[in-house]
Amino acid sequence: MQIFVRDKSFYKTVLTLSLPIALQNLITTGVSMMDTVMIGALGEVQLSGSSLANQISFIFMIFNFGIASGTGVLTAQYWGKRDVTTIKYIMATMYRLSFIIGIFTMLISLVFPQQIMHIFSNEADVIAEGVKYLQIMSFTYLMYGITITSIGVLRTVGTVKISLVVYSISFFVNVFFNWVFIYGNLGAPRLEIRGAAIGTLIARVTEFTIIMIFMRVKEDKLHFRLKDLLHTQKERTAEFGRTATPVIINELLWASGTATLSIVLGKMGSVIVAANSICQVVVQFVSVFFQGVGNSAAVIIGNTIGQGEYDKAKERAKTFLAISVILGVFAGIIMLVLKPLAINFYNVSDATKQVAAQIMNVSAVIVLFQSVAMITIVGTLRGGGDVKFGLFIDIVFLWMIAIPLGFFTGLQLGLPIVAVYFCIKIDEVLKCGLCFYRVNSGKWLKDLTI
C-alpha cells in the first residue's frame, strides 16, 4: 500500500477543507495574542490572572469541541450517505446538551469565582484580578457553546468558510473593544482586566449572531430549524450517547488534565504563568495547519466510510499519518525561528522572557508529537468511528503519567522549568507509538451507519 495515495482529488479536498479551518485557527490565535499583549501591558499579575481564569473557558471550549467532535463522527458518516433526516435528530441532541452545559458553567463561574481562582493560584493579587475577569466571562459560555457546536457540525458536511467569516469579524470586534475598554479610549472608562473580558463578551455575542443568521438564511444542506430541537428519536439519541459520550469524556479529561497541569505552573509563580502564556500563543500559531488537517481528516475519513469505500479509507489514513509527521517537523522549525521575535513582542520582565525561551525550546520538540496525535486521534480515528482509543490513552498517559510527574517534579522536587515542562507534556510523546500501531492495524475502521 502506498504511503501517499495517488489521487489528486484527495489532496485538493484536504486543502479545501483544511485551509479555512487553519485560517480560522490563525485568527483565533491572533485574538489570544492581542489579549495577551494588551493585558500584559498592564502587568504580569493581570496577565497571570486572566490566563488562569481562562482555564474555565478552556475546559468549556474543549467540552463543546468534544460534543461537536462526537456529533461529527456520526454526521460525517451519515453525510456520506446524504441522510439529512438522521443528522437533524443528532444535531438536536447536540444542541440540548450544549445548552445545559453552558447554563451550568455560567452559574458556577458567577457564584464561585473566588473558589475557582484559589484552585489555580496562591497569590492574592493574581486571584483578585482573575475573579474580575471570570465574573464577566461567565456570560459568554452559553453563546460560545452553541457557536462552537454549530461550526463543528457544518464542517462535517463540507461547509467550512462560514467559520472563517465568523472569526474574522470576531477578531476585529474583540481587538477594538479591548482597546476601548482596557485603556479607556473614546471616552469609555478605563476598566483594565474587566475591559478585556467585556471585549471578549461582545465578540462572543457577534459570533453567535452571525452563525444563527447563517443557519437561518444561507445554510443550504441541512436546513436545521428551531422546531427541529423538539424532535427526538430514541434510537438516534442512544446512538449519539454511544458515540459522542466517549469523545466528550475524552475531551473533558484532556481539558481538565491540561487545566490540572496549569495548577503546577500556577503554584510555581506568576513569572512561570506569564511565560507559559506567551509560549502557548506561539504553539497555537504554529499548530494551526495541522489542526486544520486533523479536522479535515475526520470529515474525509468519515465521508469515505459512509460511502462504503473501506479500503480507500485505510489508504487515506496512512497518508494522513505521514502528513502529520511532516507538518509536525515544520511546526517545530517555525517555532524556533519565531521564538526571539515572539518573546520580544511582549512588555514583560527579563526573567519572564528567559523562562518563555526555555519553554519554547521544549515545545518546539513536543509539537511534532502533538501533530501526530491531533491528526490521528481527532482526525483519522474519530472519523473512522474509533472513539474509545483516545479516551484510553488520555486516561493512561495524561492522568496516570504526565499529571503525577508534573506535580512531583514541579512542586515536590522543585526541578527547573525545562524538566517540569517536558514531564507535563510527556503524554504527547507516549501517544505517538500507539497512534502508528492503531492506524496500521486497521482495527479503527467502524461503519456506524449500518
From TrEMBL:
Key words of the record: Cell membrane, Membrane, Transmembrane, Transmembrane helix, Transport
Listed transmembrane segments: 21-43, 55-76, 97-116, 136-157, 164-184, 196-217, 320-338, 358-379, 391-422
Membrane topology of the entry: Multi-pass membrane protein
UniProt-annotated location(s): Cell membrane
Chief localisation class: membrane
Keyword set includes Glycoprotein: no
Domain of life: Bacteria
GO molecular function list: antiporter activity; xenobiotic transmembrane transporter activity
GO CC terms, sorted: plasma membrane
InterPro entries: MATE_fam, MdtK-like, YsiQ
CDD domains per UniProt: MATE_like_8
UniProt-listed NCBIfam families: matE
Protein name per the record: Putative efflux protein, MATE family
